[in-house]
Amino acid sequence: RDRVLGPGAMVLAGFARAIAPDLIAMVDMVARTAPFRRMSTPSGRTMSVAMTNCGTAGWVSDTKGYRYDPMDPLSGHPWPALPALFADLAARAASRAGFSEFHPDACLINRYEPGTRLTLHQDRDEHDFSQPIVSVSLGLPAIFLWGGPARSDRVRRVPLEHGDVVVWGGPARLVHHGIHPLTEGMHPLTGRARLNLTFRRAM
Ligand code: MD3
Ligand code: FE
């Protein structure tokens, strides 16, 4: 069931499927304290993906730039704590992909509705690029766009389904990536939405 996409990138197909209902219940709990919101890009555009965070640091974007912040700017309070179920899943997935001792401090939760996309970008707001990123896909399927170290590198399309976990590290850590506009659909656990959890060591 494990698929190597390339150096440093591995899909653990269905790895989170059995605990998906619990993960989604925890996302709902987080969102009661820190609601999903569409953030502004530094250029002043509104992102189509709705986001929230849990953990001791959360990823935020506004007209001042991108950063990790211990506080939710909407409430002025710390982000909800990282549930033990989340931290444990991220550590088990990283370990299976060859990264031992992964202790994430940040979980960005992205919510996509049909038509929503994430344009090609790199994740470079973290301190230590030797730490991997673990991502968990829930609900509606998506086509993940996977490029290379340069923005102009050829882009591969990788279908991601409910319960799939992907671990990105080492030479894959700084590749350009994105999500193709979500196709219309309905999922029994998430409705008309895809949820993606990304676990990172931010600070
Ligand atoms: C490859 N999220 O939040 S997860 C993001 O499905 C983000 O919501 C997408 O890109 C999503 O920044 C993709 C897979 C992923 C996450 C981070 C990566 C792939 C990555 C970092 C480096 C390389
Ligand atoms: Fe990303």
UniProtKB/TrEMBL annotation:
Cofactor note as given: Binds 1 Fe(2+) ion per subunit.
GO cellular component, as recorded: cytoplasm
Binding residues for substrate: W59, Y66, R67, Y68, D125, R151
GO molecular function terms noted in the UniProt entry: broad specificity oxidative DNA demethylase activity; ferrous iron binding; oxidative RNA demethylase activity
Gene3D superfamilies, alphabetized: Alpha-ketoglutarate-dependent dioxygenase AlkB-like (2.60.120.590)
BP-aspect Gene Ontology terms: oxidative RNA demethylation
Annotated keywords: Dioxygenase, Iron, Metal-binding, Oxidoreductase
Residues holding Fe cation: H121, D123, H177
Pfam families (UniProt xref): 2OG-FeII_Oxy_2 (PF13532)
InterPro entries found in the cross-reference section: Alkb, AlkB-like, AlkB-like_sf, Oxoglu/Fe-dep_dioxygenase_dom
Required cofactor names: Fe(2+)
Keyword 4Fe-4S recorded: no
Chain residues that bind 2-oxoglutarate: N110, R111, Y112, R194, L195, N196, L197, T198, F199, R200
NCBIfam families, alphabetized: PRK15401.1
PANTHER family on file: ALKYLATED DNA REPAIR PROTEIN ALKB-RELATED, NUCLEIC ACID DIOXYGENASE ALKBH1
Protein name: Putative alkylated DNA repair protein alkB
Source organism per UniProt: Gluconacetobacter diazotrophicus (strain ATCC 49037 / DSM 5601 / CCUG 37298 / CIP 103539 / LMG 7603 / PAl5)
